[in-house]
Amino acid sequence: MIKPEDFEPQLKREKPLVPGYWTVGELAEELGTSIRKVQVDITGDAKLRVKAKVNAIKVGSVYLVPDSDAIKYIQVQQKRIKKNIK
Asked: Helix count (H) and strand count (E) of the chain?
C-alpha cells in the first residue's frame, strides 16, 4: 500500500479537513489543478466521454475521497503531469 510518506516531494496537506478522507479542494490544491477537473475525474462526464477515475462518497453536495484512493489518484496524476512536462 502506498503511504503519504512515499511521495517525493512530500504532500502539501498537513491536517485533513475530514479525517480519513480528502475533499475535492484538497486534491485540487495538492495537484495544482482546478476543482472542476478533479470533480470530473470523480464523477465522469458523459458529454466529454470521460469515465470516473477515482471512487468517492457523496455527502450532501460534497465529494469525499478515502485516503487510499486519494493517494493512488495523486500518484497517477503526478506521473501524468511529469510525463507531459518531459
From this structure: 3, 3
